[in-house]
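Quick one: co-fold with (R)-mevalonate.
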Amino acid sequence: MGSGKGYGKTILFGEHFVVYGLPAIASALGSYTIANVKVVLGKGWTVDDQRPATPGYKKKKYNEALQSITNIIEHLKVDIESQKLEITFSGDLIAASGVGASAAQCTSLARALNDSFKLDLDDEKINEAAYEGEKAYHGTPSGIDNTASTYGGLIWFVKNLSGEKNTMDLLQSPKKMLLVIANSGITASTTEVVADVRRLKEENPKKFDKIFSKYKNLAEEAKKALLDGDILVIGNLMNQNHKLLQEITVSGGINDKLVNLALKNGAIGAKMTGTGRGGLVIALAENEEIQEKIAKAIEKEGYDAWRTMIG
Ligand code: MEV
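Sure, here it is.
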């Protein structure tokens, strides 16, 4: 039996923009998915997905999950003709749109196969295998989710559009950040939303150029603010990033509603995170009291709110 872990993630700045080679900042979460692989007689593989999940998530992502497992097994050239793999997923990460659930699943499986078959893969190779799995979920993934899931910590990520190595720098912030993660409960298709943004960008190149250039400056400012531990600036930049995400149409009404609710209850900044059009919203709180106030207000409206600390 082999096993492996993959962490969830939250994107602080730059979802969608990152697909086009602009920098993004993400943090791994403390919650993770665990994959276990048991090798038995037979051939092929089976999967038992025991992860806690937002209702509807697993059904919506079912075919993508099967394809991603196939991609990883093929990429790692694991023999499934003369043996059978019984794969189980579990862990405390709640599978939902926006939390890097697919990346955590892919990373955990790559690590579990590495463990089962003593493949001697380093993190770079694990990350490459997880990226192959992510292709089933994202179409054209930037790679930020699997990178955050594999390496952990707070990362500055830039996709290399020529297919060479991506840039990944670990950022050390002097300040821990208290977040509330609000779950809209709506599962979005990353492939569809990313494709939609690409179509809109092709239709309105000038509009997108302007937005991209605003975002690029914002990302640089965000990096500096994180390195300085200036959470007031970080919050303000999160609000600005959310507006740009609205402009590229990926923030749905439910995301805006949760962002406004968080701001009304004292968040320094709030934005949608991940794919958008549902999924999650993150809100930055100055202290635990405000974090609790925001979380309670979200729960009162009937949504799940997770309290976490990053940085
Ligand atoms: C999804 O978590 C993040 C997106 O930017 C897609 C990607 O980076 O592959 C929407």
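If it helps, The radius of gyration is 19 Å.
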